[in-house]
Design brief:
nine-stranded mixed beta sheet; alpha/beta; six-stranded parallel beta sheet; 20% strand; 622 residues; globular; TIM Barrel
Length: 622
């Protein structure tokens, strides 16, 4: 007699994604779908029975903001995602992606030229990705996932920078406005993609997203050259299909940002436009700015404007590592952006800048701006509205991969204070021979932390490493942001900034913070990480109702209690990239992950099916 079910999970506390209070229930799966739920379902009807008493069972979670379109073609299993209980990822964000193919032309490599600095991914890694590309249109891109041993499901936006490159070419896309014929062509390609099931259109407005190809290293990525008229026309297509506009704010000009966000308005443009923007978090340098974004959403979502705007919320502290000055943080400053624009191996070029008097003057001015006291910029910074969001306070910059082992875990301020004491004649300030040798090489007169950083860059180039928490410091306000009705959790930025960030764990941290409050908050958080984003983006995911996809996660709730993400983030060599990457690998929290009812992850290890079978699929927006 054949089994009625392929899989039966018994006795787990079920959070089904609806937001309702959890219940202890059995869940039966057949052919990749949930086919029964209830108490005491007969184990004899199932081919495989999993006893899950004391565990949480929830739908596979969504990562609503990733750049895994780069990784998925070199390692389709995406194990760093699956190990965290994520079974659906959204790609093509921030106007960047691979849905139009490699788009190479002459010496221009748009994927390399756009991604390198925006997402801080070395060119050698990006070329490994580019070599895997066999398609040249959005339809073939969506179809090619069926040929991969895909781990999680993938859904994708049309990336606006790449759309402009496809129609105009890279050089024209950053040097002139499109013609009417080119605008019509962009509208046509976008409409075709909507019919193919793309999520919508992604754009970008952050002022520190630059190209990496000569002669355009001082120019921003193509999407930022689009006029309001161009965006309005393209978003009319997105609006027609009730899809989503994913964007980042124009933080240089708050009034202009408000004008652009008004594109969500159904009152002004005939029909509300679902808009998903970065980002709701408590910024270290501007703790009030996140609340300001949510107030904008609150205003535009009223009956007066009839908008559908939410800001994506990060569920953990925003810790960013830097290799020397190379990190997304320092693209915001003109001086350090010029350093980052130099090729990876161009030590000589960076040293020339670091010793150029005009550059040094600009660097010192920018580094100390708003931090000296007694001027308007410092007053604004003290009120939580600084001109720059770059964390430059030396007591917040923590060594983690320092040239002297003694420094790891210490702030630059603490090390600088010992250097100054040593230079003033206190030889006891050096705690080891290695530290004494390093201190002896410092210049005699360190005026401030600008001088300290300048010396570090001159002496060690990129071979010193440090981090700063630029938002959600201490996670004091994180849960409140996650639960705000105008925010949406699930922003992880997975696959981007591979040596700078490790947010794969953000969804798990969201569950931890919710558990610390109460069970009702856990039920709401599960809904916010599963069914709610699936509904917004129009995806068949995020539920464990009968008939739903059997993408499921078993969580050991007690393991959340003692876990701190900062303790499990580390830099690991990954063979697929031939490069190191920041990862986060908590142990014991995720007991097992099922995709399409098939066991993909269990007991801290990838299972046989992951990477060998096609588990996930390209999800098309409905």
């Amino acid at each position: 007699m054949t089994s009625t079910w392929d899989l039966l999970i018994k006795g787990a506390k079920l959070f089904d994604g609806s937001g309702e209070a959890p219940v202890v229930q059995d869940v039966a799966v057949r052919e990749g779908r949930v086919v029964a739920r209830g108490e005491n379902l007969p184990a004899g009807h199932a081919e495989t029975v999993v006893e899950a008493s004391g565990q949480w069972l929830l739908p596979g979670m969504l990562d609503i903001h990733t750049h895994l379109d780069l990784e998925v073609d070199v390692e389709p299993a995406l194990p760093e995602v699956v190990r965290h209980g994520t079974t659906t990822v959204l790609v093509g964000n921030c106007s960047l992606g691979t849905s139009f193919g490699s788009q190479k032309s002459g010496n221009q490599e748009p994927i390399v030229d756009c991604f390198t600095r925006v997402e801080n991914i070395p060119k050698a890694v990006l070329r490994k990705v580019s070599e895997k590309i066999t398609w040249d249109n959005t339809g073939d891109y969506m179809d090619h996932f069926a040929q991969l041993p895909l781990g999680p499901n993938v859904a994708t936006f049309v990336p606006h920078s790449m759309l402009r490159v496809e129609v105009m070419g890279l050089e024209a896309s950053v040097s002139r406005a499109p013609t009417e014929q080119e605008l019509v062509a962009m509208e046509g390609l976008l409409e075709t993609a909507m019919q193919q099931g793309y999520l919508g259109l992604s754009t970008d407005g952050l002022p520190f997203h630059y190209l990496s190809n000569d002669p355009n290293t001082s120019k921003r990525i193509p999407t930022q050259f689009a006029s309001f008229k161009e965006l309005r026309r393209l978003l009319k297509v997105v609006r027609k299909y009730d899809r989503v506009w994913q964007t980042t704010p124009i933080i240089e000009n708050r009034l202009m940002a408000l004008v652009y966000f008004s594109l969500t308005s159904g009152r002004l443009f005939g029909k509300p436009l679902k808009t998903s923007a970065l980002s709701a978090m408590e910024m270290t340098a501007a703790p009030r700015s996140g609340r300001l974004f949510l107030k904008v959403a609150s205003l535009l979502n009223t009956w007066l404007f009839k908008g559908k705007l939410h800001f994506q919320a990060l569920g953990t502290n925003f810790r960013v590592w830097s290799d020397g000055i190379v990190s997304p943080l320092f693209e915001e400053m003109k001086s350090t952006s010029q350093l980052i624009a130099k090729e990876y191996d161009d030590v000589e070029g960076r040293q020339a800048l670091l010793h150029d008097p005009d550059w040094v003057e600009l660097f010192r001015k920018e580094w100390l701006h708003g931090r000296t006291g007694g001027d308007f910029a410092s007053w604004k910074a003290s009120k939580g509205f600084p001109d720059s969001l770059v964390v430059r306070d030396a007591d917040r910059l923590i060594f983690d991969g320092a040239p002297v082992n003694n420094w790891d875990g210490e702030s630059m301020a603490a090390v600088m204070a010992r250097v100054q004491r040593f230079k003033d004649g206190d030889e006891t300030a050096a705690r080891s021979k290695a530290e004494q040798g390093a201190f002896e090489e410092f210049p005699a007169n360190l005026r401030d932390d600008a001088d300290f950083m300048l010396y570090m860059m001159r002496r060690y180039d990129k071979s010193f490493r440090f981090y700063a928490d630029i938002a959600n410091e201490g996670n004091r306000a994180t849960l409140d942001y996650l639960l705000d009705e105008h925010a949406l959790p699930g922003f992880n930025d997975s696959g981007a900034h591979i040596t700078n960030m490790a947010f794969f764990d953000s969804n798990l941290m969201s569950l931890k913070l919710a558990k610390e409050r109460d069970e009702a908050t856990v039920a709401r958080m599960v809904q916010r990480l599963t069914q709610e984003p699936a509904t917004i983006f129009g995806l068949d995911a995020g539920s464990l109702a009968v008939g739903a996809r059997a993408d499921m996660v078993l969580i050991n709730p007690n393991e959340l209690d003692g876990w701190e993400p900062d303790q499990t983030r580390r830099l690991e060599y990954r063979e697929i990239f031939d490069h190191h990457q920041m990862v986060n690998r908590p142990e014991g929290i995720v007991h097992s992950v099922y995709i399409k009812g098939v066991l993909a992850w269990a007991n801290g290890e990838a299972q046989q099916a992951l990477g060998q079978e096609t588990l996930g699929q390209a999800l098309r927006a409905a």
